[in-house]
Amino acid sequence: MSGTYLGMPSFPEAARDAVRDVTLRGNLRRATHTIRDKRAGAVAELDDWGRLREAGKRIKDHTLRHLDRYLVQVEEAVTAAGGTVHWAADAAEANAIVTRLVQETGESEVVKVKSMATQETGLNEALEAHGIRAYETDLAELIVQLGKDRPSHLLVPAIHRNRGEIRDIFRSEMSEWGRPAPEGLTDTPAELAEAARLHLREKFLRARVGISGANFMVAETGTLVVVESEGNGRMCLTLPETLISVVGIEKVIPTWRDLEVFLQLLPRSSTAERMNPYTTMWTGTTDGDGPRAFHLVLLDNGRTDTLADEVGRQALRCIRCSACLNVCPVYERAGGHAYGSVYPGPIGAILSPQLRGTASDIDASLPYASSLCGACYDVCPVAIDIPEVLVHLREKVADQGGKGHRLERAAMRAATWLLDHPAALTAGERLASKTRKLHPERLPGPGARQWTNSRDLPDLPAEPFRDWWKKNRA
Ligand code: SF4
After folding, report:
1. Is the CB of 390 within 6 Å of ligand 1?
2. pLDDT digits over 166-218, tens only?
3. Angle 136-60-337 from CA coordinates, rounded to 5°
């Protein structure tokens, strides 16, 4: 994964400021509760939701088990339809391929459809380093880009911003990137949307290169699918002469019949819509219609390592609907930035440490960024057992021995020695009983002190149990 967020502090440290930010918490609470309630209503309309969910899970598991075969099928089908397929082992290779492809067109700007894969690789920054400007065209991504901000939600990357903040960003930043915000812009949704529409339209009409991800790739025909709500995707996917799609290898599904299942699961889980407003599908190139050149960059970037883990691989089923974020009590309070990755919330807590490994502070702390309440598993449309993977990853982190775990291990070693030496144990117990009046009521250290702020430490008896036993039962 891109190193953009690496070097971040651990999750609890990064979340500390966010939980104190009253505005942020208010914005998040309002937005997540609205989406979660609507989703529940949309799902309740279908009496076969449970079976759809099981079908989605099985299709994904089957595809992941035979990923090698289906990826080759995608490559053959895309090539036969006039496209070119590139394989990228990691973020750096994907960025180098895309940069070269854009340079070969002679262009210095591109329009982008919202894409998690290119955020994961840090593509915009890589293009910028080569003098190529990437324009985000999804409304929320535009807000993030203009505000020099970072996304904090899978589906609504600017969920941490309210309307007033968005108006201020448009007023002060739009002119730097193209058409300025209209005079006297207010914070009404219609005016903000119109300002974005006017700003983006000139970019759609000028751009000769488009960059996208894809929600699904259908192996039997090599067809790519993007679902979206604003129509910006349709513009980016059809108007430019060259289209480059960067897609994670886990996005493949075998057949169109399988697609039917996901086109029901995804919109209801993400935006609570029965059907998303725009579904764009394309297969290679077609004379006189759409882009004349199509490149598909298949991205690994830690996915095959994730696939090798029998428990963790279920994270690759994810269809990025964001339902798990909207119900997560930790996400609601900490916000998305604290997760230090383009993948926030419960799915981020299990995906990022698998894609990037657990060497950094932030990645080693992510499996602990959960209360294990299980709400994420209940809403997941492909039944990813996120709590199970979190516990599995905690075990891995503990095995590799972080700072906290070294202390725990030292304490366990001391306890082992003490229990192996009964005389020392007896002497220690007597000493503890004799000095019990001197013991503190709260444990030392910030974490332990907080824990004992709301709990009483048990009283030590005046006499150790073994002495009592000898006296009374001998
Ligand atoms: S883990 Fe499940 S609920 Fe969360 S984003 Fe992925 S598919 Fe949606």
Report:
1. no
2. 999 999 999 999 999 999 999 999 999 999 999 999 999 999 999 999 999 99
3. 40
Q: Is the CB of 381 under 6 A from ligand 1?
A: yes
CA angle 7, 349, 333 (to 5 degrees): 90
Cβ neighbours for 4, distance < 8 A, ≥ 6 positions apart = 122, 125
Please name the residue whose Cα sits nearest to atom 6 of ligand 1: 318
Question: What are the E-state strand segments in 249-330?
Answer: 252-253, 278-283, 293-299
pLDDT of 428-463, one tens digit each? 999 999 998 888 888 877 767 777 888 888 888 999
C-alpha 324 to ligand 1 mean position (Å): 6
**pTM confidence score:** 0.86
**In terms of Cα–Cα distance, which of 363, 362, 269 is closest to 320?**
269
* 215 Cβ below 6 A of ligand 1: no
Give the position, in ligand 1's atom list, of the atom nearest the Cα of 317: 7
CB of residue 349 inside a 6 A radius of ligand 1: no
Q: For the chain, list the domains and their CATH numbers.
A: 3-304 (3.40.50.10420), 421-473 (no CATH)
Q: Tokens standing for 122?
A: 């840090």
